[in-house]
Structures are given as structure tokens and as C-alpha cells.
Design goal:
This protein is α+β, with helices and mostly antiparallel strands and 145 residues long. It contains 4 helices and 9 strands; from the N terminus they run αββββββαββααβ. The strands form 3 sheets. Strands 4-3-6-9 form a 4-stranded antiparallel beta sheet, with no helix packed on it. A 3-stranded antiparallel beta sheet has the order 1-2-5, with no helix packed on it. It is flat.
Length: 145
């Protein structure tokens, strides 16, 4: 429904990416759908893995369909969401984190501040990033208690 609505309002050539998730605490599951967003990171038992967030971007094809995925998500598990500026933008002049650097940077951030890896990323990994950044940066950390 969101895709169809955006097809009606976005100008030609514009689109949106999205990641939609539902955490079911009664069944210890995370059900999610991706629409061209960067791959979120699932943190389970100290292991980091990328979730498949592929899917057609929103606002271009009104008949696009989207596949829901379900993974275990129990107490202590975490979910890290981020915009593409984290992996595509400069973390230091002339240097990008890149997709290959994402998991090591997040693992280091979790080791530094397991209760708040976003603050650790901002304070360490992105401390040298040129200002202002060229793209909007969004970081979200959700941990199941």
C-alpha cells in the first residue's frame, strides 16, 4: 500500500527505500520486509550477520511485491539499522567505511559500548568524518531486553 501511494505522489525519477520490521516478543521472532534499504545487522549471541533487505524500491512500480522474512529474535538480540550514508559517506577525508567495513566497525562499537553502539560509532568511527556530511545519516539500535 505504501509503494502504491508513493507511486502516485513521487515525481518521476524519485523513489524511497524502506525497512519494515515487527518484533514478536511472544514468539521470539523478527519479521521484516526490505525495499532497497541497506542490509540491517542482526546481533545474536555476539555474532553479527546481515539481513536480506533486498526488494524493489518504493514509488516506481505500483505492482511491485515484497517478500517477508522471519528470523529468531530472542532476549539479548539486537538489530542495527542505518542509512547508506554510513557505508558510502566519508568517515575521514578520502576514506569510506564501505560494506566490508560495516561489521568490523559495529563489532568494535559493541565492544566499546554494548549498551549504546550508536554513540560508539559516532564518537569513534565517524569522529573524523568531514562536516557537513553530504548525505543524511540515520543510525538506529534496538536491543531486546
Amino acid at each position: 500500500a505504501l509503494n502504491r501511494a508513493l507511486c502516485d505522489v513521487l515525481p518521476t525519477g524519485q523513489f524511497a527505500t524502506a525497512f519494515y520490521a515487527v518484533i514478536d516478543v511472544a514468539h521470539d521472532q523478527l519479521t521484516y520486509v526490505g525495499a532497497g534499504s541497506p542490509h540491517p545487522v542482526l546481533v545474536r549471541g555476539g555474532q553479527l550477520s546481515l539481513l536480506d533487505a533486498t526488494g524493489f524500491v518504493l514509488g516506481i512500480a505500483p505492482r511491485a511485491t515484497y517478500q517477508a522474512h522471519t528470523v529468531p529474535f530472542g532476549p539479548g538480540d539486537g538489530l542495527f539499522l542505518y542509512s547508506d550514508a554510513l557505508v558510502e559517506g566519508e568517515v575521514a577525508p578520502g576514506q569510506v567505511l564501505g560494506s566490508a567495513g560495516l561489521l568490523p566497525a559495529l563489532a568494535e562499537a559493541l565492544a566499546r559500548r554494548p549498551e549504546d553502539p550508536v554513540a560508539a560509532l559516532l564518537g569513534h568511527t565517524l569522529a573524523e568524518a568531514p562536516r557537513p556530511m553530504r548525505d543524511d545519516l540515520t543510525l538506529v539500535w534496538a536491543r531486546r531486553s
